[in-house]
Amino acid sequence: MSEHGLLVSAPGKVILHGEHAVVHGKAALAVALGLRTFLRLRPGGGERLRIHLPGVGVRREWDVAELSALRGRLTADFDESKSPGVEQLDVLKEFAGIAADASAPDSLAILAFLYMCLAISAKYGDVPSVDIAVWSELPTGAGLGSSAAYAVCLAAALLHACRAISCPLKDGEATARFYFESSRSQGWPEEEMSLINSWAFQGERVIHGNPSGVDNAVGTWGGALRYQSGKITSLKRVPTLRILLTNTKVPRSTKVLVAGVKEKILKFPAIMNPVLDSIDAISQECQSVLEAMPTNPSPEYYPVLEELFDINQHHLNVIGVGHPSLDRLCRVTASHGLHSKLTGAGGGGCGITLLPPDATPLAVEAAKRDLCACGFECWETDIGAPGVTLHSSSALNAEVLHALSES
Ligand SMILES: Nc1ncnc2c1ncn2[C@@H]1O[C@H](COP(=O)(O)OP(=O)(O)OP(=O)(O)O)[C@@H](O)[C@H]1O
Ligand SMILES: C[C@@](O)(CCO)CC(=O)[O-]
Ligand SMILES: [Mg+2]
Questions:
Q1: Which residues belong to any copy of the GHMP kinase C-terminal domain (predicted)?
Q2: Among 48, 94, 131, 223, whose Cα sits 20 to 30 Å from the Cα of 358?
């Protein structure tokens, strides 16, 4: 690693269909977003490990020797295939001064970092003496996979620092071109990408409790994929879909929402399971339509996609992850002839609106104006972005450096 260090990035995601149902073994369709999380890794000084997370207001540092001793206290084996143990996490919370039931963004971010750092270093070598800074273009906790993008970046950086994966960069190679031109991930061989994905899943487990793995899969592999019970399939063809993202700015926690759905299923299995089956069928139907669409689709394909959005949005309300802000978002876009659904865990956070090719610029602008008038933030972004990427320090542009230097 050069003294300037390395830059790793991973994309956020949009789930088109299948959120929550995917936690219960159903399929989800998800695409990588053109909004990314960046991690800068530099050699540390004085045998210290430092972490700077401006997005969640964290700046912490520890002695490497102290972390090695802590690692020795965590007796259970660390393995990328085993869930983080409750006792292990309790020890880490106590060490970091985090309350036992803490769910604040900074606490979860520190906990995920400590777990991944100790677990990866236990398996592959010494606790590394490095400085890590993470900055994101993604809103935190809004349904766009910020936790997974964070976990994927951490997994790649820590595996790299422990020399558990190769360094795909040659000396002095600029990756900006590589990053912007490559359509799929990039740099690491297939089995190392899988390793990054497995460890990122562990980070997601610390943050979410019971994640399906779809978010870290998209953060790792990028593009557009179908995910079901750990099986990842790239979609045969992804048409150019125009999607409007709207952040209601209503905060929520994926962990709490996922737990709420589980409770509902246990309480009303005969009522809830058919809803999950229906969501699964929606994902299948949507995949068939997407794969039948030409790259630049004509408007005729859209009515089905729009109807699938509407039906799924109702289902998501039924399983208890709607929110009045999301109902409002759907009503506002419907008044301009556009169809929306929540994306990610729901309960607030973001919604997506399909923009068919025959939607007039006037209608789209009017919808955006009305959404902003509700206090929401909306923007259009690219989908199908590349997955986890290693850049040389020359790719650290002024904006990233500025964000990382802010405390
Ligand atoms: N840039 C970041 N730096 C540090 N921690 C982050 C960052 N982004 C996300 N996190 C961690 O992830 C948590 C948010 O995860 P959560 O799963 O609730 O939301 P999300 O991933 O944005 O949405 P969804 O899971 O619905 O897609 C934060 O509370 C924080 O602990
Ligand atoms: C709600 C959920 O389905 C998606 C969160 O982006 C949770 C998960 O799959 O882990
Ligand atoms: Mg998440």
A1: 308-364
A2: 223
Please write the tens of the pLDDT for every residue from 49-66: 999 999 999 999 999 999
Dihedral (C-alpha) 153, 157, 163, 166: value to the nearest 10 degrees? 60
- Say yes or no: do domains 6-224+385-405 and 239-380 share a fold: no
Q: Where are the domains of the chain?
A: 6-224+385-405, 239-380
Residues annotated catalytic, as ranges = 147, 215
Q: Which fold has domain 6-224+385-405?
A: Ribosomal Protein S5; domain 2 (3.30.230)
Is 16's C-beta closer than 6 angstroms to any atom of ligand 2?
no
- In CATH, which superfamily holds the domain spanning 239-380? GHMP kinase, C-terminal domain (3.30.70.890)
- Cβ atoms of residues 252 and 179 within 8 Å: no
Amino acid 353 reads T
Q: Mean pLDDT, to the nearest integer, of 327-335?
A: 98
* Residue 106 CA, distance from chain mean position: 17
Q: Tell me the residue type at 277.
A: D
